[in-house]
Amino acid sequence: MKAAPEAQKRLLDLAELDSVLDRLAHRRRNLPELAEIDEKSKQYARLATQVIEAETEAGDLAREQSKAEHDVEAVRTRADRDQKRLDSGAVTSPRDLASLQSEIASLHRRQGDLEEVVLEIMERREAADTKVTDLVAQRDEVRAALTAAEDRRDASLQEIEKEAGEVRGRRAAVAAEIAADLLGLYDKLKDQYGIGAAMLHGGRCQGCKVALSIAEMNRIKAAPHDEVLRCDECRRILVRTSESGL
Ligand SMILES: [Zn+2]
User: Of 176, 204, 205, 161, whose CA–CA distance to 196 is shortest?
Assistant: First the structure.
């Protein structure tokens, strides 16, 4: 392939801009916020599940308490009714009286037992409610940290994108100056090797840093200026400039 030396030198400008774009892409992929967001997202998911579990437990206990309170109320109502019957004097048979009194006593004991149950549930419910409050606070704290990390990530991405946009603009301007066949070769090599062109400097290809043999240097010295050379080692386009020492 033939191309004017000036056009070949423009490939080095293109390679420089492409390496800036590569560095920006690398920064974009390796933002410290990405790992933080990943970790916080997992923490958040775990806490959200724990909150639901704790809320379910607290809800179950609230229902259990209201059922136990209802039981207490039913026993108290029955005891009150028996007491009224006793107080009314309607029951006169000593055997019925004894039976009624024994039932009232038994109902009072039962009421006492059920009230104990209510108290025990209330204690468990208080602990469950505290657990819900703690977990909700932890979950919200992680959510806030996650949102902050996401905001920082977005700000960084925006900054990188702005810079990349400027570099892409400059790259397009340089690429427009290069003939289609040379640019096509450069782009193909860039896709294959990461960098499409490198300068010959100090007897070395600056792409792979391999020193060229004397025979290779002689071949290059003898080559016409407009011939597009390739590095034998890395296959990149080898660009000769005034700094190449030829
Ligand atoms: Zn090379």
Answer: 205
Query: How remote is the CA of residue 237 from the centroid of ligand 1, in Å?
Result: 8
pLDDT tens digits for range 52-94: 999 999 999 999 999 999 999 999 999 999 999 999 999 999 9
For 92, list phi and psi in degrees, rounded to 5. -120, -30
Q: What is the pTM of this model?
A: 0.74
CA distance linking residue 180 with residue 209, whole number of Å: 28
Average pLDDT over residues 147-163: 98
Q: How far apart are CA 31 and CA 92, in angstroms?
A: 91
The CA angle 214-204-194, to the nearest 5 degrees, is: 135
CA distance 124 to 154: 44
Would you call 162 helix, strand, or coil by DSSP?
helix
Model confidence pLDDT, tens digit, residues 198-234: 999 989 999 999 999 999 999 999 999 999 999 989 9
Altogether, the residues listed in the chain come to a count of 246
Q: Are strands 237-239 and 229-230 parallel, antiparallel or unpaired?
A: antiparallel
244 pLDDT band, cuts 50/70/90, is confident
Q: Could you give the CA distance from residue 58 to residue 157 in angstroms, rounded to a whole number?
A: 43
Ligand 1 center–CA 241 separation, angstroms? 15
Tell me the average pLDDT of the chain: 96
* 166 neighbors 17 (Cβ within 8 angstroms): no
Q: Which residues surround ligand 1, an ion (CB under 5 A)?
A: 205, 207-208, 231, 233-234
Cβ pair 118, 65 in contact under 8 A: yes
